[in-house]
Amino acid sequence: MSRITAWAVEGIGEIRPGDQLGDIVADACSGAPNGPLEDGDVLVVTQKVVSKAEGRLVPVDASDPLSHKVLVEDEAVRIVRRRGDLIITETKHGFICANSGVDLSNVERGYAALLPLDSDRSARRIRDIVRARLGVNVGVIVSDTFGRPWRKGLTDVAIGVAGIAGVVDLRGTPDSLGRIMQVTEVAVADEIASAAELVMGKSAGIPVAVVRGVDPEWLRESDINEIVRPPQEDLFR
Amino acid sequence: MSRITAWAVEGIGEIRPGDQLGDIVADACSGAPNGPLEDGDVLVVTQKVVSKAEGRLVPVDASDPLSHKVLVEDEAVRIVRRRGDLIITETKHGFICANSGVDLSNVERGYAALLPLDSDRSARRIRDIVRARLGVNVGVIVSDTFGRPWRKGLTDVAIGVAGIAGVVDLRGTPDSLGRIMQVTEVAVADEIASAAELVMGKSAGIPVAVVRGVDPEWLRESDINEIVRPPQEDLFR
Question: Which of A62, B24, B151, B184 sits at 20 to 30 Å (Cα–Cα) from A112?
Answer without folding.
Answer: B151
